[in-house]
Design brief:
Oligomer: single chain
Strand order of the largest sheet: 6-7-5-15-16-17-14-18
Number of domains: 2
Strand content: 25-35%
Largest sheet: 8 strands, mixed
Order of helices and strands: EHEEHEEHEHEEHEEEEEHEEEEHEEEH
CATH class of the largest domain: Alpha Beta
CATH topology of the largest domain: FAD/NAD(P)-binding domain
CATH superfamily of the largest domain: FAD/NAD(P)-binding domain
Length: 386
């Protein structure tokens, strides 16, 4: 078993999954998070377990990642998902024609996709736009955005991981060209101290660029916020998508007694300053009601924004042109040893992101130990608090 100390920065889903994977490989793990766990992007997404269908035509790499991890998560986190499937609906002849390319791309990526007639669509979802022409059914599902990563945290904690919340990194300490420690501030006491380790992993999502700057490395990340809107009432039981290339307001995710409409997309430099543009909220209502007309009259519950960590050069305009795939950066390529960054990806791919990261870490540390998280069933989310 490995005896190295890995320090993970970031207490969202990715950090949780990395902590889980590394503890399973025998590492001593310390994870720091400046707020509460899942308090960043992780706890603000709409709770979709992606089939990958949304990306099958234009981002096949992401699509394949999603469907593979979708199936793995169903195995290792039983009971965490509502297996309600997704429904892509065509409202124009152009979208109906696009369905042929869409279904073919899904099948090429290994995503089951079934064509439905108008009558079959309305039988499954009577609240969708009555002008629907046809639909395609895919294996999307829904999950609780916070409970799912808590299962990774719970299992990592059970296996010895130390999780320090309200602990913010303020500096990297180097010995020569290698990171040897991080300096952190405990926000509950306002005191600063150092945490040493053998390897340091940034899993800070949209904030990974900021950490990279602090460590003196370049992380090509574009924080891309999106607005989501929740209305009262379960307006659909399946995840409803517009059958076209991904765009604004083209998905409705049922969450218990709510319906979540998303999302918009733009890019920012600072993920701590996203804003909540009123025109984006209005756009969610407009486009969401094209999918399910009762969105327009449903009682408002909440609106919020969350920053996606998209990989791409600084200067991208909207975020729609950037891939949803993930990448692990070993910063030895920039002359800094002992520091890696995992970023990009989606909540659906958090386990795969962790496996890739742990493989990089093991190679660097000379540890010959494979991944076991594809089959290891996670503890329930409640175990995190016990």
């Amino acid at each position: 078993m490995a005896s190295f100390h890995a320090v993970i920065i970031g207490g969202g889903g990715t950090g949780a999954a990395v902590a889980h994977d590394l503890t399973m490989r025998g590492y001593k793990v310390t994870l720091v998070e400046r707020g509460e766990v899942t308090s960043g992007t992780t706890g603000r997404h709409h709770g979709l377990l992606h089939s990958g269908a949304r990306y099958a035509v234009k981002d096949k790499e992401s699509a394949v990642e999603c469907i593979e991890e979708n199936m793995i998560l169903r195995r290792i986190a039983p009971g965490s998902f509502e297996l309600n499937d997704g429904l892509f609906i065509a409202l124009t002849e152009e979208e109906a024609t696009y369905s042929h390319e869409f279904i073919e791309a899904c099948h090429e990526c290994g995503i089951p996709a079934r064509r439905l007639t108008k009558q079959e669509v309305l039988a499954r979802e009577p609240n969708v736009n009555p002008n629907v022409i046809m639909g395609v059914q895919v294996p999307d599902a829904t999950m609780d955005a916070m409970r799912m990563p808590l299962r990774f945290f719970a299992t990592a904690k059970h296996n010895g991981a130390t999780i320090k919340t309200y602990t913010e990194v303020v500096d990297f300490i180097k010995r020569g060209n290698a990171v040897s420690a991080i300096r952190v501030r405990d926000h509950t006491t306002n005191k600063e101290y150092e945490i040493g380790g053998d390897i340091f992993i940034s899993a800070a999502g949209a904030w990974s660029g900021k950490l990279g700057d602090m460590a003196g490395v370049e992380v090509p990340i574009r924080p891309s916020p999106g607005v989501m809107l929740a209305v009262r009432g379960r307006l659909c039981n399946m995840v409803i998508n517009r059958l076209h290339a991904s765009g604004d307001g083209d998905i409705i995710v049922p969450q218990r007694a709510l319906s979540v409409i998303g999302t918009s997309s733009w890019v920012v430099e600072n993920p701590d300053k996203l804003g909540l543009p009123q025109d984006h909220i209005d756009m969610m209502v407009k486009y969401g009601s094209e999918l399910v007309p009762s969105v327009r009259t449903a009682p408002f519950r909440a609106a919020w924004s969350a920053a996606r960590p998209l990989i791409g050069p600084r200067g991208a305009d909207t975020g729609r042109e950037l891939s949803r795939t993930f990448k692990c950066f070993d910063h030895i390529d920039e002359g800094v040893e002992g520091f890696v960054t995992i970023t990009g990806g989606k909540a659906t791919t958090l386990r795969g992101m962790a496996e890739t990261t742990a493989n990089v870490v093991c190679k660097k540390m000379g540890v010959d130990m494979g991944c076991t998280t594809r089959e290891s069933v996670l503890l329930p989310h409640t175990a995190y608090y016990s």
